[in-house]
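Archive transcription. Copying these from loose printouts into the bound notebook so they stop getting lost. Printout 1 of 2:
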Amino acid sequence: MKVKIQIPIFVPAILVLIVSAASAQEEQWLQYRSEREARRILGDTGSARPPLESEPPEGVELPQFEADEQFFARWSTPMAEKGGLWIALDRAHEHGLWDRLFIDSDGDGHLADETAMEAYRTDRYSAYFGPVKVVFDTQEGPITYHLSIRFYQYRESSRRIYVYPGCWYEGPVNVAGHTKHCVLIDYNVNGTFNDKARDSGDADRIRIGKKDGRDTRFVGNYIEVDGKLYRTDIARDGAFIKLSAASDVPYGTVQLPETITEFAAGGENGLFTRKPENGLIRLPVGKYQVDHWIIQREDEKGRDCRLEGRYFSGDAGVFEVTDAKETELSIGEPVRCSLSVNRRGEHYEYSKSVRGQLGEYVSITCDGRRMTERAKLHVKDKTGTFDRTYPIPDQ
């Protein structure tokens, strides 16, 4: 009797373990979301700024416009058969902002069959549209995507169009038997959610953690969750993600100045944040660009002071990690503070900047207050009749 009772209890337990292990490598489907103010909800999205033209595009059938003057732009996306979708801006009156928008929502290359969308909000300089729905015709079937669009006009010579993602994917995912919340963001706003790149502006974004978390990483080959490394496989349209434990990844060592207390670098492998020990960190083998560095310590007054370097441009901060030899990076202190003064007619313009060794912008805070905001410029002429002190704006 004891044997008969134990067999049906033991076998299902084995099956549960097998299914759980396999599910970690299967497609985990996410929910599509779209909102008018997606940027406010997500808090971390990029933008595209396609060139704005006043001449109608050749070969594109146009709708009936209300005003005498229109503007046109082409939003680039690999999801469209023709590589992009045309946008036309019109206005209901001959004066004011361009507050009517047409977009090639079906990707047929024409606008004559489209209906005008009215701006849901306008202010002195901008008209806002969204969420603007488009449908991509793919081999897997139609895929819906939403955009948010802003038309900006300060002067006639200063008109621009900005395109933001008006949608994202999110939902629960299983990571090593634990339920986490996953969010996928089309950061570079090209209609896909799986873009990897050395340049952070060209990489999409992913979050895996708490539902209200803001720990945003670059989409890459890997992601660290609870201190463990996983390979990622993300659907092009963002509909699902696959995670698998990465146990055979080669690592290399990076030597940093010992004053660095936090370091982050990203690339096609993803984004990694490290707390160096004696200036040493380990990263998966590959090419990276420094995302930021932090030096945190107390000053002579006992204040908690923080030096932080960010915004590396071009090839600044690019390095490669190999498993053959240690990589050394010269970042952090010393930093350089400079004052720029330019004369424009009878007036002078001035600004300050604090830069790191690689040209990155550096901020200095003590007990949470920005120290550079306290910088002043004292101007005095030879006779002493002019004697004034000004705050110095950042460059």
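Printout 2 of 2:
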Amino acid sequence: MKITFLWRENYVGYLWASSVTAKSYFVHSGILAYQNEVLSAYATELEIKKVKKMTEAISNNPAVISNYKKNFKQIKDKTLKFEKKINTINLSKITSRRLYALFENLILILNEYIKAYSWTEAHFLSGIENELYSAIAKKKFIKKSTAEIIAQLLAHKSKKLYQQYKITDQEHLLLNTVNSAARMRFQAKKTMTNLANISETLMREVARRSYLAVSQVSQLELNQLKKLLCQEVKPNLEIINHRQKNFAFMISNKYSIRTLTNRQANAIKQYEQKQTKTKKIHGFVVYPGKVTGRARIVPPLFSQEDYRTYIKSLQPKDIIIAPMTSPYLTPAFSKVAAVITDEGGLMSHAALIAREKRIPCIIGTLIATKTFNEGDRITVDANTGTINK
């Protein structure tokens, strides 16, 4: 079975993986695999084919992005309204049935969010990025690398640069599309931090009432959560504790979850083993430069306080390596020498902030977090897109 790595995210438990991501993220089919508090997503070959068709529609008519902007604004407004409602409720005083109803409301908003957000993922917009790379690469009169030129154009957006590189109307449109999508994705991630805070607040209250850890609550099935709150039926802790270590399932046919077959599980295992054998890995350059420093693997961070503690520990020559970055990590870009991510495209959060802060950044490495260890001395060549141990 052929699979394509999509992304990794810290601390997305079974509850949200099964009731939100599985339900709303994939167009056709994919795999979600959780290990060491990190959820990885893989697309099947059919998923990539379906997405490619949808990408062509966006590429041929970039104005469609304005519709997505409206969707995001509606979701942002819903989130802020719901967050305000949560803040006015004394959760310790409400009934368990009402607490579960709040979970249902949150899940509805999260599903709307994922459906609206998923189109900004790298595999959705790869067609637009490839078209931009191809167009700039054809400008043989320019001695700089294609990645360096694109980084400059996206970071500065000056008429002088456009004239210098003889940017056509179509290339200008592609650059505007990338910048617009990147900004929208950044704003969407801010909304996601609000949703994550609401989720954490609700799960803490469930944990208090049920004498479970918050991490155990996050590994419940939605039906188990309902039974726990509305019928006081305790979950099987052996299963829950096992899920805290790892779980994996296949999603297909519009939210049909199945346990992985041995063939599918082996496909993931072989994929990971093949990718992590090398000491040199490659990715996509979003801002050029070359630095050597200490690898700082971003651990699972659960709260704003966790992020603040991690960022405080960073030194000027450190190099951040993360599955993906979030708005909470934005202040770290001003402190470090470079940033590397497993996932991402030109429109990712890491790409957007790296261009703004003018620091070397390589995204879409697939396996950086699985290849390097905390404290490794590494060289990031964000001119060629390679990282060496």
